[in-house]
Amino acid sequence: AQSVAQPEDQVNVAEGNPLTVKCTYSVSGNPYLFWYVQYPNRGLQFLLKYITGDNLVKGSYGFEAEFNKSQTSFHLKKPSALVSDSALYFCAVRDDSGTYKYIFGTGTRLKVLA
Amino acid sequence: EAQVTQNPRYLITVTGKKLTVTCSQNMNHEYMSWYRQDPGLGLRQIYYSMNVEVTDKGDVPEGYKVSRKEKRNFPLILESPSPNQTSLYFCASSQQGSEDYGYTFGSGTRLTVV
């Protein structure tokens, strides 16, 4: 069965420092991996995806994510955090079985401190 | 502008009073889905639809109904709401195929059942 784990409920980082938000997954076939961001009182917004190709994926707002097949991880990263990056981040996975069923993680709240 | 529109944004209702949350997308997407978001549980899929007249249960379908009579609309129906259905609801759509661009989410509907 598919599953996604976001082991940290909250991540605190100082403005200007690099940030990492962790995600691990489990699927039976090839994974389709996504990161979404949710700002207060808003719906989720697509940040980036990994389907195939380079393990380092670049997305919106300067975010990137690294796909690691051996560790079944897809961690979200940013070289220099901004206060405006403070939000709730969700990792999601879909397998390639054709069901188009997505599984979301429980979310990680990122707090960037000025 | 490409978007998913949900209405209403906020709704307070009483136990047992039937309600419908509407969802409409203007991107000609085939796939639509309803999620509920609860603290500590992330997003859980209620129902999804892969095309007109094709719907299926997600992970938490009990107490909900959906219909997909037109491609653009995917209403969520609560025939007899109960307090445990108090939650934040999101409708989402996506274009399936070899290139998965992920979901476009609506802004959410905060439902309170008293």
Structure, described:
The complex is a heterodimer of chains A (114) and B (114). Chain A has strands at residues 3-5, 10-14, 19-21, 24-26, 32-38, 44-50, 56-58, 64-68, 73-78, 87-94, 102-104, 108-113. Chain A is mainly β and 114 residues long. The N and C termini of chain A lie far apart (41 Å). The model of chain A has no long low-confidence stretch (mean pLDDT 92). In chain B, strands 2, 4, 5, 6, 9, 10 and 11 form a seven-stranded mixed β-sheet that branches. Chain B has a four-stranded antiparallel β-sheet with strand order 1-3-8-7, with no helix packed on it. Chain B is mainly beta and 114 residues long.
Short description:
The complex is a heterodimer of chains A (114) and B (114). Chain A is mostly beta strands.
Characteristic key phrases:
heterodimer; A: 114 residues; mainly beta; 6-stranded mixed β-sheet; 4-stranded antiparallel β-sheet; 12 strands; globular; B: 114 residues; 7-stranded mixed β-sheet; 11 strands; 0% helix
Q: Helix share of residues of chain B?
A: under 10%
The biggest sheet of chain B, with number of strands, parallel, antiparallel or mixed sense and barrel status, is:
7 strands, mixed
Interface with most residues: A-B, 21 and 27 residues
Radius of gyration of chain A: 14 Å
Shape of chain B: globular
Q: What is the first-to-last residue Cα distance of chain B?
A: 36 Å
**Unreliable residue runs of chain A:** none
Number of helices of chain B: 0
How are the SSEs ordered, and which strands pair?
The complex is a heterodimer of chains A (114) and B (114).
Chain A: E1 3-5, E2 10-14, E3 19-21, E4 24-26, E5 32-38, E6 44-50, E7 56-58, E8 64-68, E9 73-78, E10 87-94, E11 102-104, E12 108-113
Parallel strand pairs in A: 2-12
Antiparallel strand pairs in A: 1-4, 3-9, 5-6, 5-10, 7-8, 8-9, 10-11, 10-12
Chain B: E1 4-7, E2 10-13, E3 19-25, E4 31-38, E5 42-51, E6 54-57, E7 65-66, E8 76-78, E9 87-94, E10 104-105, E11 109-113
Parallel strand pairs in B: 2-11
Antiparallel strand pairs in B: 1-3, 3-8, 4-5, 4-9, 5-6, 7-8, 9-10, 9-11
